[in-house]
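Sample entry (128 residues):
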Amino acid sequence: MVDIVCADFPGKTPRISLIYVLLSIKYNQRINIFLKPQKIQIRSITQIFKNASWFEREAWDMFGILFKNNNDLRRILTDYGFTGHPLRKDFPLTGFYELFFNDSLKIIKSSPVSLAQEYRKFNFPLPW
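Predicted structure, serialized as tokens:
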């Protein structure tokens, strides 16, 4: 087991696509298994591949895919109080709070996210 790759297609059914990437060191061959689950809940493969637990945790944290029989679905890349799944295409880009440690006050502070917009103005006909 090398990786689990996820992709989100909001207008299609099924919405989420999964690719399990397997590698045979003995035969130097890779196998890609494509899945398009009808639900956002599929069975875990941690009983077959122990290292799949980390990849399933990442897919849960970033895409919200629920893996049945995986007893360790904790967030690993986002904060504990984070709401939502950031790699979904319908995830809003503004309106959330950011947490940071204020060194002078020695506390964790939260403030609304502010995005600078002056870099979003393009004055040329083609951006590439």
